[in-house]
Prior knowledge:
Layout: E1 11-15, H1 19-30, E2 34-38, E3 50-53, E4 56-59, H2 68-76, E5 88-90, E6 95-100, E7 103-107, H3 111-121, H4 125-147, H5 161-170, H6 176-183, H7 187-194, H8 213-221, E8 224-226, H9 231-243, E9 247-249, E10 254-260, E11 263-269, E12 272-275, E13 278-281, H10 285-292, H11 302-307, E14 313-321, E15 331-334, H12 339-347, E16 358-361, E17 376-384, H13 392-410, E18 418-424, H14 426-433, E19 465-467, H15 478-498
Parallel strand pairs: 1-2, 1-13, 2-9, 6-15, 13-19
Antiparallel strand pairs: 3-4, 5-8, 6-7, 10-11, 11-12, 14-17, 14-18, 15-16, 16-17
Bound molecules: flavin-adenine dinucleotide.
Amino acid sequence: MLPRETNRVKKTAVIGSGFSGLSAACFLAKRGHKVTVLEKNATTGGRARAFGECGFTFDMGPSWYWMPDTFEHFFAQFNKRPEDFYQLVRLDPGFQMIFGKGDFLQVPASMDGIMELFESIEKGSATKLKKFLAEGKFKYETGMRELVYKPAFSWLEFANRKVISGAARFQLLSSMRRHVRDHFKNERLIALLEFPVLFLGATAKEIPALYSLMNYAALSLGTWYPAGGMTEIIKAMESVALSLNVSVVTGCEVNSIYVRDKSAVTLTTVKGVYTTDGVIATGDYHHTEQTLLEEANRNYPKSYWDKKTFAPSCLIFYVGVNKKIKKLIHHNLFFDTSLDHHASEIYTTPKWPTDPLFYVCCPSKTDSTVAPEGMENLFLLMPIAPGLEDTEAIREHYFQVMISRMELLCEESIMPDIIYKKSYCVNDFVSDYHAFKGNAYGLANTLRQTAVLKPKLRNKKVKNLFYAGHLTVPGPGVPPAIISGEIAATQLSKYLNDRR
Ligand SMILES: Cc1cc2nc3c(=O)[nH]c(=O)nc-3n(C[C@H](O)[C@H](O)[C@H](O)COP(=O)(O)OP(=O)(O)OC[C@H]3O[C@@H](n4cnc5c(N)ncnc54)[C@H](O)[C@@H]3O)c2cc1C
């Protein structure tokens, strides 16, 4: 007698090996499915890849390790802990904001230190901060427990007693800007509390006050660094996947998803055809829909994407400097020009910024392995509107702008000691990740693009096709990408098991 077709192990495919793809692969394998990850680039990690050059190791994308509980949650489900793979260091100070020459605001790791700092800048603000962070804690903890791990197919998923009774405390209908300004008057404190929402891809004016949970994450849970760099998390997740017999195929671009009887049945790739019982697509959603699927099988038409608010793109420089730069610490925010003006040139009238803010990560301050002795590893990042014209001349102009500002504010020369430099911008995001308009951070977390209102995690026409990553729920950033992979894997697994 032939074995029952329905009881055989299901073959699943994950497109993409960023945080969401590796997470999805681990959870599918844990549930007993055979998993193949198909990645177009030569190495895994997606936006969080790393490269080495001239003795430096550069993380290409994320550099802020926030929400350590999310990483613990992920590894715990495979009976592991982050420290089984990498050593975590809590940064102290967590970061500094540079408002002018000699005008540096360093944010300490300890809550007592943060309270003292606030009080020294604005009298009475420490007590207000305590209340502000207590509200953020409620939003963070309730959000993580009741909201973030939902597939967001329907608002009904959120209709439980805890969510409904706490709804007003989520402050979905007031803006982050209003919320911060209701508590604090000093412009520096306001900048310090508003900057984390930049990760969410919109201004504090557009972001619901729900996201003061980011302040709780940044100030109370702390800023951490995995020794060796953010790529260590990717290596750790990949090793979990491999231990579960996931097969990872790099240099394997998927060119199309073939659908028969409302099911994805094969993936055509540059390395051949893969048959499958289910797919989780974690490459940029717009690319998967518009390029890999026939029109009849897409969730959304092209016009849908044109109406969406995308998070910014960015201009990045990876720089090796043959000396130490005294005034830099690990995370440095050059906030010596107007945030509102720069933001308006990203969101309101998109163009190359006239007077940009920028961020400099200097991991060699914490980690001697990422630069040769006596040298600095720099990552310069300037946020820009997605879809801008990207040329070598423009990149070089802003390199000069950023390095000159660093020299002025750090009060030392840098340019003559630069021994390595590489840029990365809109065109690279498009060619490396098929990113719509070269976006860096996915879709903005505005109220109209939250939860059920985000591009759906499930394809409505192809029953065994799910999406994960920073363009669907729960949103942009490393922790949400990992969560997204878990949700998509749970849903695909449920679908496959229901058919047994
Ligand atoms: C410069 C930068 C700085 C950031 N800083 C931070 C930070 O400090 N902290 C933080 O939390 N977040 C940060 N982020 C955001 C975070 O990095 C992302 O949200 C996260 O890495 C997204 O993971 P993902 O798996 O959704 O997508 P990706 O990492 O883009 O992975 C998708 C993968 O799919 C592959 N792919 C696409 N199409 C195909 C195809 N047709 N066939 C095969 N493979 C395909 C791509 O090559 C890619 O590897 C930053 C992002 C950038 C770009």
